[in-house]
Amino acid sequence: MEKVSIIIPFYNCAYVDRAIKCALAQTYENIEVIVVNDGSKVNEEKLTPFLNKVRYIKKGNGGTGSALNTGIRAATGKYFSWLSSDDLYRPDKVEKQLNFMKQHQASVSYSNYVLIDENDKPKSGNVGVSFPNRLQFYKTLKAGCPINGCTVMMKMDIFQEVGLFDESLSYAQDYDLWLRVVQKYDFHYVEEPLVFYRVHGEMGTKKHATDIPREIQLVRNRYRKSILDLILRETTP
């Protein structure tokens, strides 16, 4: 029974206790929950009830990529799973996704997900994006990131091949990593929604709406040739 490492980066988020609760409540038993406090100034008291149940790391502020990398370096699991401190997993998320990966001999997978509000109430369901073939996936990935990072589960040893999250990126560190991973692995899609993605006023995609597109364009330019090579490979007889 392989261990799954759930890594929760935390920076001032008021919902972090809910995220930790859902991680600890997973039906799959062989997990470790790693909470990385990335220099938070507020809401640290929400961690207190869980400190004897999780692996807790406190560090100076370095951004999401830095916090994730700190958790990855400390992890002992065979699989990596990321949970943002304002989002939630379904109780059977890890179990279902890991079973799916074994059935499909997948090294990387991502899933469908549901939008929720500040009170955990669903706003809309099944907003994940699936693709009929590799070519459509590559074309979409060339234009932007169709993958919700908190739906991803992948083998931990992939980081040894492609490297960790790019800590110089503040918003597109996930997109950058997927563009490296896709050079070596297929992304398998789980149709069932396994994650609840919270929409709220303090979420990063709203607070940094003007900066995010610029960083996405930077990442697109960085991997333009490699993703075009993948597209060419799929279109060449």
From TrEMBL:
Does the entry feature the keyword Transferase, yes or no?
Answer: yes
Q: Which GO terms label this protein's molecular function in UniProt?
A: hexosyltransferase activity
Question: In which domain of life is the source organism classified?
Answer: Bacteria
Q: Which residues form the Glycosyltransferase 2-like domain?
A: 5-158
Q: Which InterPro entries match?
A: Glyco_trans_2-like, Nucleotide-diphossugar_trans
Keywords assigned by UniProt, alphabetized: Transferase
Gene3D superfamilies in the cross-refs: Spore Coat Polysaccharide Biosynthesis Protein SpsA, Chain A
| Family to which this protein belongs | Belongs to the glycosyltransferase 2 family.
Q: What is this protein called?
A: Glycosyltransferase
